[in-house]
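tool_call: predict_structure(chain=1)
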Amino acid sequence: MRGRAAALGGLRRRRRIEVGADMTMEQDGRGPAAPAEAAAVRRAVAASAVGNATEWFDYGIYAYGVTYISAALFPGEAAQATLFALATFAISFLVRPLGGFFWGPLGDRLGRKSVLAFTIVLMAAATFLVGLLPTHEAVGFWAPLMLVILRMVQGFSTGGEYGGAATFMAEYAPDDRRGFFGSFLEVGTLAGFSFGALLMLGFSLLLGNEAMHEWGWRLPFLVAAPLGLVGLYLRAKIEDTPVFREAEALEAESASRQPGLKTLFTGYWRPLLVMSGLVIALNVVNYTLLSYMPTYLERRLGLSTQQALLVPIIGMLCMMALLPFAGAASDRVGRKPLWAASLVGLFVLAIPLYHLMGAGLSGAIVGFAVLGLLYAPQLATISATFPAMFPTRVRFAGFAVAYNVATSLFGGTAPAANSWLIERTGDAAVPAYYMMAACVVGLIALAFTAETAGQSIRGDAGAPASSRRGGAVRGGQGTVSGNLEA
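tool_result:
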């Protein structure tokens, strides 16, 4: 204990802490002060956003091409094959928690950059290979089986990708602009999703329905390979986050051990539960609104395939325009007010907006756009809200575990659940009820969420007060490095 106190004292006496070739961290916890800060943050934003775009490009082309995929790879009538395809989409989410348990602690031990390099390669490869699968007519049950395996690989890699990218961006961003910079991770989300949707729409218009069913649906999946290589290149050109390197240096000097999953669950169960509640609200809306919408508009509301693809694209472009403004607003007024406004707005307006979408193409465009704009404040503040709930040495693991468990159970299953419930009830407003229930869960979790806007996320920021002791966070398997603020 005396040796650790001396080590901490030595670090506190330093006016500046060198954490890498391109950046020097100031001791006050307010982030990089060197002139290279802006360039480094821009590189971090690009590296995180492109990887996230690759992840969501896969979801976009799968969700928007489900009509073609179900016909090519699954047996049975159209409705049954579509349900099988949506169930396969959900299966990939069942392995996301395994990815979170694997990649999260690894990212806290080896660094964010190393894990993100692996995950983007796995994601891009799995998506690319879907485009090469033989049809059910050619190989029988092997076609859906191979698709399930590739979706599971994609889900496993995503279990580390999203939490790692959000943590990476949050730890690079200045404390007073974390909401603004973090919003660009979700710009990448919508850009990837929109790009996938636009490719599907463009190829369907260019090639026609028959060619799309025969071979055209494969082309967007093949684009994942160059997209993944671009993301890998950007991540190779930037160092790990200054916050992680600083914590790593402190840990090495104080001879503390890296905490494991036991420490995460025993010491941080409360933020795990709170974050899970927020993620349930976030991703039930996300996957109901973005992933399921093309199928819903075509199968339930009778729009053409092209119209069903066009409506969400217009809505997502509106959302992308709002995200940076919502992120910047969260830096000024806080994360919680934006979350509260979003959740309440969705709860109140979900049913009338879904009824509006049933009034034809114009109603669908307006209804989806308003739902998307109401949802955008949640999306914009993910990278600012969730990483701040955990201290540096368990941040990746905490985010990955909470996010992926909640998403696998409630978010990724939303398209299949909505489809099944509509089949059983005949009520086209089921997605609205589903979203409203999730918003209630989110509001309950929000009541237990601490406001972190403008606060440092270095060291033990985000740790429960009872676990802090002399600048350290004590855990069942060692000591998590403490905050370096004097």
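agent: The longest strand covers residues 16-20. Proceeding to next step.
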